[in-house]
Amino acid sequence: MALLILGHPNIGESIANKAIIEEIQKANPNIEIRNLAILYPDFKIDIAKEQEALLRHDLIVFQYPLYWYNMPAILKQWFDVVFTHQFAYGSKGDKLKDKKLLASVTVGSLEREYRTFGKHNFRINDFFKNVEQTAYFAQMTFLDPLFFHGTSAVDGFTASEIERRASSYAKDLISFIERVELSSVVQ
Amino acid sequence: MALLILGHPNIGESIANKAIIEEIQKANPNIEIRNLAILYPDFKIDIAKEQEALLRHDLIVFQYPLYWYNMPAILKQWFDVVFTHQFAYGSKGDKLKDKKLLASVTVGSLEREYRTFGKHNFRINDFFKNVEQTAYFAQMTFLDPLFFHGTSAVDGFTASEIERRASSYAKDLISFIERVELSSVVQ
After folding, report:
1. What is the pLDDT at residue B187?
2. Which of A29, B8, B106, B152 has the least CB density, counted as fewest CB within 10 Å?
3. Closest-CA residue in chain B for A133?
């Protein structure tokens, strides 16, 4: 099944990501979840362990909140140290070849605020070119990111509303993961 | 003068960023340099100190190497924790208003490889939308990034060639910083 790399720096303070992870753990315990901030509170990532986890799976899901239009630092550190030369790229660096990369991202603002003349000026996908090209450079298949918009109290959502919508989003995410896995087997 | 936030995780192992910083220290000691990886080897950034440094300057330069089409994790952590609510954004979060943000980035590959059908598929500026929109959200003025391309031995550059070109790049960067500072005074 899939590997899910959780890039939230503090899941205890999260509403949306916490609800998503709990739904996944309940619905499909075959999905391997690695909570980076719990595993590596000091940012000292065990490269060999992370690479072994990647080798076990064909679909790699990155679950994280959007911070400053980008991934949180703990997840960036993971890419910086785990995607090494001759593992992810280089003349012999084909260990991730044809594996699928999916970003599943929680976003504070609503989707309609990500547009020209909107609060955030750009389309949300414009902020994912670095993730997309990272996948290509590692010879991975880039799947279009999935977004869970509206995690901010500023937009009037209560915690229980966010939890309920996040659980529903997680169900769709699990279905998507299972369909991707099934299509890989059928191929 | 300007504040320069150095986001290289290990300047001791750097060629280009090291040469750039050394040239700046020699040519203009008024530029305040903060080496994040030396100040915060454990990623535990002193938020108050970093915010005070920002308040001292009108031009904020980010000097870093491009890692996976993005900033290194130590610099992302800096944004994640220093650009707080009611400092960088929010109803009273105007402390960075009208300050200028400049990214100065070293890039392994040559510029011609950043294009459609090139090795990296996208134009280099396509990877900077998150930095650009971060500036806008903090009410800062975004200056077009400056790039130092060709830091990779793969492209046949020797260390001394990279050092020489990096010193030359640093001179241009210093001139640019001084012109920006001068134009602020004239306004």
Report:
1. 57
2. A29
3. B120
Between A and B, how many CB-CB pairs are < 8 A? 85
Q: Tell me if residue A2 falls in helix, strand or coil.
A: coil
Tell me which residue has tokens 């002193």.
B46
A153-176 mean pLDDT: 94
- Taking the alpha carbons at both ends of chain A, their separation in whole angstroms is 16
- Contacts of residue B108 in chain A, CB cutoff 8 Å? none
For the cut 60, the answer to whether the pLDDT of residue A17 exceeds it is: yes
Structural contact between residues A44 and A23, judged by C-beta atoms closer than 8 angstroms: no
Give me the half-sphere count of Cα atoms (radius 13 Å) on the Cβ side of residue B37: 16
Query: What tokens does A145 get?
Result: 């990111």
- Is the pLDDT at B126 greater than 70? The verdict is yes
Q: Measured between CB atoms, which of B72, B73, B79 is closest to A68?
A: B79
- Residue B26, number of CB atoms within 10 A of its CB: 11
pLDDT tens digit string along A73-108?
A: 999 999 999 999 999 999 999 999 999 999 999 999
Distance CA B173, CA B22 (A): 13
Q: Inter-chain contact A80–B69, Cβ cutoff 8 Å? A: no
| Res B129 pLDDT > 70 | yes
A172 to A20, A61, A104, A159, A185: CA distances (angstroms):
10, 14, 11, 20, 20
Which residues on adjacent β-strands are paired with residue B52?
Answer: none
Axis crossing angle, helix A159-186 with helix A16-27, rounded to the nearest 10: 50
Q: Name all contacts of A124-129 with Cβ < 8 Å and 24+ positions apart.
A: A126/B129, A127/A66, A127/A69, A127/A70, A127/B129, A127/B130, A127/B133, A128/A103, A129/B69, A129/B122, A129/B126, A129/B127, A129/B129
From chain B, the residues in CB contact with A74 under 8 A are: 73
